[in-house]
From TrEMBL, chains A, B:
PANTHER family: HTH-TYPE TRANSCRIPTIONAL REPRESSOR PURR-RELATED, LACI-RELATED TRANSCRIPTIONAL REPRESSOR. This is LacI family DNA-binding transcriptional regulator. SMART domains: HTH_LACI. GO terms for molecular function: DNA binding. Keywords: DNA-binding, Repressor, Transcription, Transcription regulation. It comes from Enterovibrio gelatinilyticus. Residues 15-69 form the HTH lacI-type domain. InterPro entries: HTH_LacI, Lambda_DNA-bd_dom_sf, Peripla_BP/Lac1_sug-bd_dom, Peripla_BP_I. SUPFAM superfamilies: lambda repressor-like DNA-binding domains, Periplasmic binding protein-like I. Pfam families: LacI, Peripla_BP_1. PROSITE patterns: HTH_LACI_1, HTH_LACI_2.
Length: 353, 353
DNA sequence: CTGAAAGCGCTTACAG
DNA sequence: CTGAAAGCGCTTACAG
């Protein structure tokens, strides 16, 4: 039995729909209906077909199916940086959603390079993917993105907005998140607060900075331009930025970090300066990575649910496919998670002591 | 001009090879030869064809091409855990290599689940990918893997070995790496050394443990079973494992960690215990992640070049495709990177003091 | 619910 | 180097 199966399988070419039809004793069309899960085929027939498929080791040929039907089950997740742990979480959330909808998610990494982004997307077009999720590379051309959406399939931007592009974006409420964390620090009595990390050419940086500035302005606190220090979003960037800012102004008592990873870098730099976060200086992050509650002290940060981002992004893809109408952008809610990395200061601290 | 282009593009169906042939004034066959980069077409003709392609906004249909030629430019990277930063580095290295070879790398995340692995690979088969790189999920069936390699396209395992599977594996010399780091600790005078982190059902865990035990045995040091504490490979796992091991035996003076991430968790736990790595206790990791030199103290660890893994894995894929012969497995070299997380102890420390 | 026929857009011999 | 023809393995109307 096992022997005969093996023989049949390895004998000659791969099985096709025709072979399956023969073995099942039905027509090609019927096999196709079963393969596509079409309603209205007798249960008994379905069973016969599936039996034949197993027997022959038949493998569905999606190249042929896609050529004829012009449809594809592939959805591309075009990721700007696979080494970014928050993005990894978003990808995982997206994958879960997409599979439930019957899509095959494939991720393509562009490493923050517009050139790679252009090349990879061109290849994906040739493969006729059903839709795109994309965290656009810095300096992505708005027209390029709009054309992708027009001429091809649904496109949803994640995490970053490309100004002028007619494409829905799903991203955290960056402004609100930073506003909340900054207000929290102000409430603890901090008056000289620095903002470190992030690359100025990306939309989320601008939004987070605005949230920070808004909170400061509302409290009547001035922000010196030199207290804002952009940097790479890697750990190393946080370390460098923190040192720059504290070298210039040791009187700073609180640090707002562009992301948790930047905050981790700040932790390192502080420790090398003999300063303890949560005691000598306050630090807040953004993202609430899994690791952040394991830092010591545990990092106070802004939580953005990767699950929510994945879900809202998928909803938009579906809406686009079904109604053929371009969905609205969406802001995902944020939440301040208070842990142990912030101390009180000044009158506030004395008052509490 | 811009106007006429637009009109042409949006008028009706997508351009095909036939349209390109008409505009270029050549035959379908010639267009195909140009598309496939076939040698032996006049430069002038190539230019005419490319001009027509641009003019029409022609998009190559890989479903049709794949159906006819049975070839594909897709190579799948089946990743067990996208949240693992070391794996992210390996993926990035692999992508670089694959693109130079003209492949389109797509990554598929299986989240350490055999079920997802089976499902995703089944889908990839339907898409007729040209080859597979795979970091097998725990409890992967050796026969399943062998069959994948037999019946389909080249398969190269990364990082983990599946015992009994007839598939080449490219992974670090785990045994040597741990042997080196343990010897180093022994050289610093440590006698009671714990090994923490890692999941026992995966090959790299066994190999790293063996390297550790070998060094201990050679030095005539006994290892209590309770000084070996497996755990998840996440940061949280390292934290828990460290606490378990030190709760049982506070006299332990050095910790060998399964990975750098586990070591990060150990750092957290130590700090909460009021212990400083590199002063009160020695810690070594494995992987040499980018972050490890930024920890404070900077982590002593075993470096494995992700670039080398990517390169050797690609070589094997190519060899398989070209010679139709299954390549040998390969061990990638390792290197001990001494930084500041290890202290001397006992006679050794006193001698130096 | 089933069958025979056409066709998706390429590539592949093969003849010129 | 080019052209006419066949065919890859499906899905899609359409007739029964």
């Amino acid at each position: 039995m096992a022997e005969s199966k093996k023989t049949r399988r390895s004998s000659g070419r791969k099985a096709t729909v025709i072979d399956v039809a023969k073995v099942a004793g039905v027509s090609k069309s019927t096999v196709s209906l079963v393969l596509r899960g079409n309603a209205g085929v007798k249960a008994e027939t379905i069973e016969k077909v599936n039996q034949a498929i197993r027997e022959l080791g038949y493998i569905y040929n999606r190249d042929a199916a896609g050529l004829r039907s012009r449809e594809s089950n592939l959805v591309a997740i075009v990721a700007n940086d696979l080494a970014n742990p928050y993005l990894a979480q978003v990808i995982i959330a997206l994958e879960g959603q997409l599979e439930r909808l019957g899509f095959m998610p494939i991720v393509v990494n562009i490493n923050e390079s517009v050139t790679r982004q252009t090349d990879m997307v061109a290849s994906l077009k040739e493969h006729n993917v059903a839709g795109y999720f994309i965290t656009p590379a810095p300096d992505t051309d708005a027209n390029w993105l709009t054309e992708l959406a027009n001429s091809q399939h649904p496109v949803v931007c994640l995490m970053r907005d490309v100004e002028g592009a007619l494409v829905p974006t799903v991203m955290p409420d960056n402004r609100l998140g930073m506003y909340l964390s900054t207000r929290y620090l102000i409430g603890l009595g901090h008056e000289r607060i620095a903002f470190i990390g992030g690359i100025a050419s990306i939309s989320d940086y601008q939004e987070r900075k605005e949230g920070f500035l808004q909170a400061m302005n509302e409290a009547g606190l001035v922000v010196k331009p030199s207290d804002i220090e952009p940097s790479s979003t890697k750990r190393q960037g946080g370390k460098i930025a923190l040192n720059r800012v504290l070298d210039r102004a040791p009187e700073i008592t609180a640090i707002v970090c562009f992301t948790d990873v930047v905050a981790y870098g700040a932790y390192t730099a502080l420790s090398e300066r003999g300063l303890t976060p949560g005691k000598d200086i306050a630090v807040v992050g953004f993202d609430d990575l899994e690791d952040s509650r394991l830092m010591s002290p545990a990092l106070t940060t802004v939580r953005v649910s990767a699950e929510d981002i994945g879900q809202m992004a998928c909803e938009r893809l579906q809406q686009w496919r079904e109604n053929l109408t371009v969905p609205e952008s969406a802001l995902v809610g944020v939440e301040l998670v208070v842990r142990s990395s912030c101390c009180s200061v000044g009158k506030k601290a004395r008052g509490l002591a």
